[in-house]
Design a protein that fits this description.
Blueprint: E1 2-10, E2 18-19, E3 22-23, E4 31-38, E5 43-50, H1 55-62, E6 71-75, H2 81-87, E7 90-94, H3 96-99, H4 110-124, H5 134-145, H6 151-163, H7 171-176
Parallel strand pairs: 1-6, 6-7
Antiparallel strand pairs: 1-4, 2-3, 4-5
Length: 179
């Protein structure tokens, strides 16, 4: 069982588009679209692009991260149809507008909505980051959210990857790039 959804994060105020003296509203190119998937245990999130998603963006984001034949739970976003077709998924879809009035405990999309909320909360807690680096922050969120739950095991994972990193930087190269 896999939940998927898209969430949106605004571009920096100085990069917003002004048309006829007014800023764009809604799901415009001033919003960064982030595709997010959750299987009840693991979170996967990736920047899809700017503005509303489409079938190509959805396919590129999720096609290699959802097991063929899985059960997909999603809102009635039209772009999800490509995944259902290509991966031969069974699916449950819900009208997000009708679920807005539901309490969280009664909302079948609550698990993915919760992950979208937590991701946005994480991004808002680092407001000064460059939007060019947003995927790195999303990767950090996924690392924090995914198993193992034990913090010491996560520290061990980070240290092991740092120790086994084979790339070396020479002293001369480090200072040569700064001039």
């Amino acid at each position: 069982m896999v939940y998927i959804n898209e969430t949106f994060y605004p571009v920096v105020e100085s990069d917003k588009t002004v048309k006829d003296g007014k800023k764009l509203r809604g799901l415009s190119k001033d919003q960064i679209c982030i595709g997010i998937a959750y299987d009840g245990n693991h979170v996967y999130a990736h920047v899809e692009g700017f503005g509303k998603t489409c079938q190509k963006k959805t396919k590129d984001t999720f096609i290699n991260h959802i097991k063929p034949g899985s059960h997909l739970i999603h809102d009635k976003e039209k772009s999800h149809k490509i995944l259902i077709k290509e991966l031969k998924l069974s699916d449950e879809s819900y009208d997000a507008n009708k679920l807005k009035k539901c309490k969280d405990k009664d909302n079948p999309l609550n698990p993915i909505n919760r992950q979208c909320y937590l991701l946005k909360r994480f991004l808002r807690s680092h407001p000064g980051f460059s939007r060019d680096d947003i995927q790195h922050y999303i990767n950090l969120y996924c690392f924090i959210s995914n198993p193992p739950a034990d913090k010491l095991e996560k520290v061990e994972m980070v240290l092991n990857s740092a120790i086994h990193l084979t790339k070396s930087l020479r002293y001369r190269d480090f200072y040569a790039s700064k001039s």
